[in-house]
Write a structure and sequence with these properties.
alpha+beta; elongated; single chain
Length: about 120
């Protein structure tokens, strides 16, 4: 009859191995999803359409004992009333203001550029 120590050791070993397997399977799934999204975006046409910047937001992760990372997002509304949010670089984010209207260029789920309409008014 196996000792209680041996049974506990085997149980802990099985739980540790199951934990590692779960982590590696999760990482693999996430990597596969990222590759599939990249392939789909590369195959998608580049489209340009009129849009309005409806909101901007930042998301900060990390900090404390690790390095803080800021992710920038902007939501655009199209003439048909639909809205889509895109992830931007800090430089792209800084060039946008809520209410800006212009031409949004995208490829799949990727933000490419936003060219603001600049109405030139004659001044007396």
């Amino acid at each position: 009859m196996p000792s209680l120590f041996l049974v506990a050791f085997v149980l802990v070993l099985v739980l540790v191995i199951a934990g590692f397997v779960t982590v590696f399977v999760s990482i693999g799934r996430q990597a596969a999803r990222a590759r599939a999204e990249r392939r789909a975006n590369l195959a998608a046409p580049v489209t340009t359409s009129p849009a309005t910047v409806t909101s901007r937001r930042t998301e900060v992760t990390g900090g404390g004992e690790s390095r803080a990372v800021t992710t920038y997002h902007a939501t655009f509304e199209f003439p048909d009333g639909t809205r889509r949010e895109f992830t931007l670089t800090g430089e792209q984010y800084a060039q946008l203001a809520e209410g800006d209207r212009g031409l949004l260029t995208t490829q799949g789920t990727w933000f490419q550029s936003f060219r603001r309409d600049r109405m030139i008014q004659d001044r007396p």
